[in-house]
Amino acid sequence: MIWQNQEKKYHTYNRYLRNKYGQKVFKVSLNGHFTCPNKDGSKGLGGCIFCSPSGSGDFAGSVKDDLQTQFDSVKTMMHEKWPNAKYIAYFQANTNTYKPTEALKEMFEASIALDPDIVGLNIGTRCDALEASKIDLLADLNKKTDVTIELGLQSIHEATSEWMNRGHDLACFESAVKALRKQKLEVVVHIINGFPNETESMMLETVEYLNRLDIQGIKIHMLHVMKNTALAKQYHEKPFNLLTKEAYVSIAVKQIERLNPNIIVHRLTGDSPKDLLIAPLWTLKKFVVLNDIDKKMRRQNTYQGKLYQQTD
Q: What pLDDT is recorded for position 61?
């Protein structure tokens, strides 16, 4: 059993990167001044219910700075902790393929040329902003560096999709994953636990669905209520229950148990700026949450994939 002598009983992103590149690798978040088709009226208005006005990249660089300035700033800060490391250029804020293909080509090629020690390019986007020409571009970039596409699914349940104002259906997501994988691009999927209409079994069903797709990574987050969002307005007007830390840890462990052991776990808890977070406040203690997950898995003698059931 591959987890027998490992501190973490799941396939961590840090371990994956060290095994692949032989040393520490960290992401450098870059802001390419993207918007979103779910904000500008192309597919919807207002964005997803939980989305902050600045987009999902609250820790990305400033759009006031060019890419080189953004990169150098983060690189200098991170090198204080890891003096010998390589980098992944990471476009996180909003929908990072939502520009004309030629503009994307110019930006992404410039980003992977910012430093000779850049080993990869990670791009967070939506399934409805991945036209064929853009996927072809990403495939060409994948010949120059390791390209990973991060897709926000959040939940497989259509009632949840409508509630969150996601703006696309599950068929769109699945079609995008298949198109990306046909071009051998690695795919990481974001999901969220704690939607007020979802039961534990529904959250487990989302992971079990992903097991049936050819994906390479997963990020698991807790639903955050942040200031200046549609969700915050709803939460204040008609408060709903959010998962406790104990409930979140329990569900995350059950999801890991059911997860295909070949899928890399990029995240098990999300970050939210302290000054913007309304609830749940326990998510600010990121390392406590991760430690509680580790302790529970060791206590239960469980590991990633223990309950995984392979399907055709």
A: 67
Torsion of CA 166, 228, 189, 248, to 10 degrees: -110
Indicate the average pLDDT of the chain: 93
- CA-nearest of 138, 125, 133, 148 to 38 is 125
Angstrom distance (rounded) from CA 207 to CA 210: 5
What would the mean pLDDT of 179-207 be, rounded to a whole number?
A: 98
Q: Is-contact 48 165, C-beta < 8 A?
A: yes
Residue whose pair of structure tokens reads 């669905």 in the numeric block: 209
pLDDT tens readout for residues 120-160 = 999 999 999 999 999 999 999 999 999 999 999 999 999 99
* Amino acid in the structure at residue 49: I
Strand ranges of the sheet holding 146-154, from the earlier edge strand across to the other edge: 25-30, 86-91, 118-125, 146-154, 186-193, 217-222, 264-267
Helix (H, G, I), strand (E, B) or coil at 293: helix
Separation between Cα atoms, residue 210 and residue 216, nearest integer Å: 10
CB half-sphere exposure, 84, CA atoms < 13 A: 4
Q: What pLDDT does residue 271 have?
A: 81
Other beta carbons less than 10 A from residue 96's beta carbon: 29
CATH code for residues 13-299:
3.20.20.70
Contact between residue 140 and residue 177 where contact means Cβ atoms under 8 Å apart: no
What are the tens digits of pLDDT across the range 236-275?
Answer: 999 999 999 999 999 999 999 999 999 999 999 988 889 9
The residue type at 42 = S
E strand or H helix at 200:
helix 200-211
Token digits of residue 261: 């052991």
CA atoms within 13 A on the CB side of 3: 19
Task: Name the amino acid, one letter, at 8.
Answer: K
The radius of gyration of the chain's CA atoms, rounded to the nearest angstrom, is 19
Which one-letter DSSP state was computed for residue 70?
Answer: H
